[in-house]
Amino acid sequence: MLRNVGDVDLWEIDNVIPRPDLLDRVVTADALYCMLTEQVDSVLLQAAPRLRVVSNMAVGVDNIDLLACTSRQIPVGHTPGVLTEATADLAMALLLAAARRLGEGIDYARSGQWGEFRPDLLLGREVHSSVIGIVGMGRIGSAVARRATGFGMSIRYTGPSAKPAIEHELGAVRRDLAGLLTESDHVVLTAPLNPATYHLIDERALTLMKPNATLVNVARGPLVDTDALVVALETGAIAAAGLDVTDPEPLPIDHPLLDAPNCVVIPHLGSASVKTREEMAELAARNVIRGLAGEPLEACANPRVYG
Among the options 249, 279, 282, 298, which is catalytic? Predict the structure, then answer.
């Protein structure tokens, strides 16, 4: 798609492009098609005097300085909508895996410990008919809420604005963060990362949760204070966690979360279905093409750039 509209300088090595290489290669770029691993900041923008559009193959844009791009009249594309359902599926998978101790069960079976039936073996927490708290009732949060109704769950949510349509459709009840944490059996994070949500789930927040509660994060790692989560899992302040995203990301191989039996950690797979990643890639490419043509982007994260 992109080669039909211009010359493409592709980083062909299967790892993150080193920062010096990125800064060197954007000097002559009219467009930048990037991943969430690239920091598009004032330094990069200064190195790219010809840049006319940035397209992020992700829904989140916390890796991009939107104000700096807007001041340069550079529209920033992203990929909302197309990854909603896949990410919501994964949120429920992590919730079930963590609450029902599937990771521990897999390890138990593979290690040769599996013996005679025991009625108290690896008892988990109920998911059906429980209370789910969703932090961030945007597209993904709403999709998680709809799935939760299939499990007969009562829905609590928190966010910067009320969602009357979701409340009417699903019986969701809006709470402040403290109220949500104290009432919920399972807490799912789907909020964007910004200064207001950085370490939203810190030591105090974790102490408000029920001791049998599950925490699931499919948003961004820094929403959670990692050190505080380690302590909460070790001390039993909460029962379990399911993490698709972490801080740092990736976690060092010796990190305690990777050894915690009550923590399921996977490598940022929220949108990792074949169909979804194809749709994300194509939407990001269409954003580039429209930006180069001087047309409004199909999905723009800084619409103020258009006045």
Answer: 249
Average pLDDT over residues 85-93: 98
DSSP string, 41-104: -HHHHHH-TT--EEEESSS--TTB-HHHHHHTT--EE--TTTTHHHHHHHHHHHHHHHHTTHHH
**Strand locations in 244-304 (E):** 263-265
Active site residue 249: yes
For 174-232, the pLDDT digits (tens) are 999 999 999 999 999 999 999 999 999 999 999 999 999 999 999 999 999 999 999 99
pLDDT on residue 184: 98
Q: How far apart are CA 221 and CA 240, in angstroms?
A: 16
Task: Please give the pLDDT value at position 307.
Answer: 83
Does 168 qualify as catalytic in the annotation?
Answer: no
Give the separation between CA 99 and CA 168, rounded to whole angstroms: 28
The token duo for 299 is 């999905």
The domains located in the chain, with CATH, are 19-81+273-306 (3.40.50.720), 84-265 (3.40.50.720)
Q: Tell me whether residue 128 is one of the annotated catalytic residues.
A: no
Catalytic choice (139, 268, 277, 298): 268
